[in-house]
Write a structure and sequence with these properties.
By secondary structure, the protein is an all-alpha fold. It is about 70% helix and about 0% strand. It is built from 15 helices and two strands.
Length: about 375
């Protein structure tokens, strides 16, 4: 796939302009985006990705368009899984909702930065050493097994890494947030705010997820232009998606399992590709392994769509289960007519010929006691008739 320099410049310029608009215009003030704002932004960014893929199809053919869509869907799914960790971090550090937007913006910018570095390093390594695909494939299979062993997404699965623990211990942090500022002066001392610790947590999380995402997309396409654009489009709209889905992210309990299947598939695909292009002298004498099949991108795209679709449906079915209301054999009671015995019971708590004491299990009252009670109730009845 040949991409002219001016296409690179235009694409990068437009994407950076969109990012700058999102950061400096939409996110200029800390607030919680409304449902309408979030839905509109997500529809806009997803629509842009679809249109971009159609443009790739028109100018470069269906193969490269399929590679873009497969890479975009995979990276988008990994980013949603990343959002689940972001949600846990925000909850653990009790970040106020109106400040979470700023924290997410910083997290997304850091994700772009780290992924950009890994994209460049990955492209250089692939150009120099074909055996890198063996490493990428083995790493993705290892990651898939690790995700599968974790099972369902759970808040308890998140463990703070060593960088976060070091920041907690070594940095003098205040107890309260100072808006979105990273430092505050208290009693003549400059302290970092909890927001600074949150940024450290988001940054290290982005770094770890970049290690998974870049080998994954290089297993679907080796075109740096498609790798870059798929990653950028996958990160666009994540901030709005976070607020739109909210606790629904916690309902995607099987997302990690679905991603483990996708990553394992891509890992095997990478190993097969490495075998097909083999140059290692201790494997098949340094010759290509001709029987190793090349999985076409159409199969990869279909597998990813089906796997993620099944994962989402099963997750929502499990997390959406609501205990059924208890059902009994008793028939519904009909409304009582005014003046009936039942209405009198509901209003006064007595049935004709009985007193509350008798209903409570005290048995029949003697004549003297009953006369005293009637004398006490008589004035009340007279007053009610007058009114």
């Amino acid at each position: 796939m040949h991409v002219a320099d001016y296409v690179w410049y235009i694409t990068v310029g437009v994407l950076l302009a969109l990012l700058a608009f999102d950061v400096f215009i939409i996110g200029r003030r800390p607030h919680e985006p409304t449902t309408r704002e979030s839905a509109t932004a997500i529809a806009f960014y997803v629509g842009l990705a679809v249109i971009f893929g159609l443009g790739v199809w028109a100018f470069s053919g269906g193969r490269y368009a399929g590679e873009f869509y497969a890479g975009w869907l995979t990276e988008y799914s990994l980013s949603v899984d990343n959002l689940f960790i972001f949600l846990i971090i925000m909850t653990r550090f009790k970040v106020p909702r109106k400040y979470q937007q700023t924290a997410l913006l910083v997290g997304i910018i850091l994700a772009l930065f780290f992924r950009g570095i890994f994209i460049a390093v990955g492209a250089a390594a692939i150009n120099q050493f074909s055996w890198v695909f063996y490493l990428f494939g083995a790493f993705l299979v290892y990651t898939a097994v690790h995700l599968a062993r974790q099972g369902e997404n759970d808040d308890d699965d998140y463990k703070e890494n060593s960088v976060i623990r070091f920041a907690r211990r070594r940095l003098n942090a205040s107890e309260e947030y100072n808006g979105v500022k990273l430092t505050v002066v208290q009693n003549g001392k400059r302290l970092v705010t909890p927001m600074a610790i949150v940024i450290v947590a988001l940054g290290t999380t982005d770094l770890l997820f970049a290690l998974d995402s870049i080998p994954a997309i290089y297993g679907l396409t080796q075109e740096p232009f498609l790798v870059f654009t798929a990653n950028v489009f996958a990160l666009m709209g994540l901030r709005q998606l976070y607020f739109l889905l909210g606790d629904l992210l916690r309902r995607l309990v099987y997302l990690s399992l679905g991603l483990s299947v996708v990553l394992a598939f891509i890992g095997v695909k990478l190993v097969l590709h490495a075998m097909h292009e083999n140059e290692l002298p201790f494997i098949n004498g340094g010759e290509h392994i001709s029987w190793a099949p090349e999985i076409p991108i159409s199969v990869s795209l279909g597998f990813i769509i089906v796997t993620l679709g099944i994962t989402t449906i099963l997750s929502l079915r499990k997390s959406g289960k609501i205990p059924a209301l208890p059902t009994g054999d008793t028939e519904p009671t009909e409304p009582t007519e005014p003046g009936s015995a039942e209405a009198s019971t509901a209003q006064n708590g007595t049935v004709e010929g009985k007193t509350p004491e008798a209903d409570a299990g005290g048995g029949e009252l003697d004549e003297a006691t009953r006369a005293e009670i009637e004398c006490i109730q008589a004035p009340e009845q007279t007053d009610s008739k007058k009114s």
